[in-house]
Amino acid sequence: MNNHFIFESRELRLTPLNIEQDAPVLAQWSRDLEIARRLRSDPFVQPLSVSEARRVFEAWLKEVEASNRNTLFALRPQEDERLVGFLRITGILWLHGTANFELLLGSEEDRMRYADEALVLGLNYAFGELHLFRVSVQVPEYDAAGRALYDRARFTLEVRQRQAVFHEGRTWDRLQFGMLRPEWEAFYQREGVAL
Amino acid sequence: MTTPTLEGKRVRLGRMEGEKDLESWAGWFRNVEFQHLLDVEPPHLWSAGQIQTWLERKDDRSVLFGIRTLEDDALIGFVTLEAPDWTARTAWTSIGIGVEARWGQGLGREAMSLLLGYAFETLHLNRVSLTVFEYNQRAIRCYLRCGFLEEGRARLAVQRFGRRWDLVYMGFLYEDWLCLKKREEPVILS
User: What's the pTM?
Assistant: First the structure.
């Protein structure tokens, strides 16, 4: 396979972060408290101000530059510069060839439209370029769309942490899915998963 | 029911401080098996000074206790509670017995039970989580005896000794703690 355009798919592009333009968009998204919760670990989940959104980005970039354990892409459509989400590969352990996968899409509409393509771009990067052996992803039990996404992408449900997250007044399990390099090779290189 | 305490029959949990504790801590890491059982990072050595800096930098979002034997007050290991989520009331734990002569004597198990009591009855946590390497069978047995339940495995997540091993996830809920306590309470016959 000699695809030199690993940062592109049919509808989507992996691009660098543009702090000044993207921060107000992230602040807007964080009015959805589920998104706010994923951006900061404070006990008080609340929407981010634009300057806080900027600080979140700066912290992400600092991690990427300083730790050599993270990568970060902003997701944008082929047709314009609009920010639709982020793809982060975090906690890379080079000795073990493992990492966590974090896909965050701002709106329900964009999630429906772009999540599958974003995931495939991310997997190709993680296995094809970073040469990882496995990636993990965590999804709360109540996120039906997320669970369906990783099922479709041929991840395996590996861990069910009981009562590990609190949402809408009660506790839920946290699910962890994993994909191994041989699985990625079989599903994505040989069979080709239909999008 | 007795008041929760950090003191058991053979060990107690306490703060770590002073030159002697730091030297003990630094010494444990000279045993590479200790490091292989403890951490995914490549084995590494720290000076007492570096450890001091690290301990001082640790914020109030985690708890680190030294494990001391009651008979001679010797520091033999440590146990932690980290990354608390006060909304879900969860935290992660890790434990290490640094003195190899003390391995396999059930002291870690007693220390972990003390920590669980502290987590559930003093801090009001609802869940304590941990991960353990598949090859660390002694620790897995210890956690199961404490009452942890295996909740799954990240397949082949650890590369060690020329092959890959699973990372085992375990969890302990407050409801598990209550069940355990009920079993251990003496039955009073009238």
Answer: 0.93
